[in-house]
Write a structure and sequence with these properties.
Helices cover about 50% and strands about 15% of the residues. It is an alpha/beta fold and about 290 residues long. It has one domain. The longest helix is centred in the C-terminal third of the chain and has 22 residues. It is globular. The two termini are about 35 Å apart. The relative contact order is 0.24.
């Protein structure tokens, strides 16, 4: 079974394995580590696979997608509400076709959520919220890899950096489904139905360190169904990050880069892009 847009855009799985989702990237004289982040976990997923700790301990600096501290600021919360909710008389019901709105209402009723709670949310935020509801139902309620290592790095006084501002990330989310809101919601409703049955398969693939399976089950249908969103969320951002990553590989400092797991696989994923540049990519085995 293939996975699609919403689950791919919010891949928040709690996965624990012997092969950490961490890769060592080297050239002739410099090294960095790059790991796939899972933005929300279950309590049972701690402690994390020790490959993450190995890379963290080796690194002089930790680099995240964005400034994690700023994500919880009042200023960012206000900006998010401005970008992801309707600020005028428009509502979700006035945006969607009646049959799509009814299907969404029925799904939310099955989750004990009144549709009125969603009326002022733009479809992009509705799609993400639908996934988050399912993850919470499955017990994924704890902080993820990136937040976990941000907290540790703060305590250790370790140097930190990031690729994008929170505002840039917000813009990516806001664009999801833009101009095709009705199809986006219909697709999202079908997508979230797959989440419970996909978890076991994804856990097995992750334990094997099978990056190609992650591509097959999470990205291929996404790319085919919504190529523009795929390009905005993954491909363009990966290419935007590459110059910074290559600069890191020209200095003696060792970085541990933590980015969303789905930035790693596929022909435009970071691992293939780095390999195409001539860097040596080696998956980090769990040292323990």
């Amino acid at each position: 079974m293939k996975n699609g847009l919403i689950l791919a855009a919010t891949l928040l799985f709690a996965l624990n394995s012997q092969a950490a989702s961490v890769w060592k990237v080297t050239n002739d004289s410099h090294t960095l580590y790059i790991g796939g982040t899972l933005h929300i976990l279950s309590p049972q997923d701690y402690p994390l696979p020790s490959g993450y700790k190995f890379a963290y301990d080796e690194a002089d600096k930790v680099v995240f997608e964005t400034d994690i501290a700023a994500l919880s600021s009042p200023e960012f919360s206000k900006l998010s509400m401005q970008r992801l909710t309707y600020q005028d008389e428009q509502t979700l019901q006035s945006t969607l076709q009646p049959e799509t709105f009814s299907a969404l209402e029925a799904h939310l009723q099955s989750r004990g959520i009144p549709i009125v709670n969603m009326q002022k949310l733009r479809p992009s935020l509705v799609g993400v919220t639908l996934s988050m509801i399912e993850f919470q139902r499955l017990g994924l309620t704890s902080q993820g890899v990136d937040s976990y290592y941000y907290t540790i790095a703060m305590g250790d006084g370790k140097s930190m950096g990031w690729f994008e501002t929170p505002e840039e990330q917000l813009n990516f989310i806001a664009k999801m489904g833009e101009g095709d809101e009705d199809a986006f919601i219909r697709y999202s409703l079908e997508d979230v139905k797959k989440i419970p049955t996909l978890l076991d398969q994804l856990r097995a693939d992750w334990r094997e360190g099978d990056i190609e399976a992650l591509n097959q089950y999470n990205l291929m249908e996404f790319e085919q169904s919504f190529p523009n969103i795929y390009d905005e969320l993954l491909t363009k951002r990966n290419y935007n990050w590459m110059p910074d990553i290559e600069k890191m590989l020209s200095t003696p400092e060792i970085e541990f880069i933590l980015v969303g797991t789905l930035h790693l696989p596929g022909k435009t994923g970071l691992l293939d892009l780095l390999e195409a540049k001539g860097y040596t990519i080696t998956q980090v085995s769990d040292p323990l």
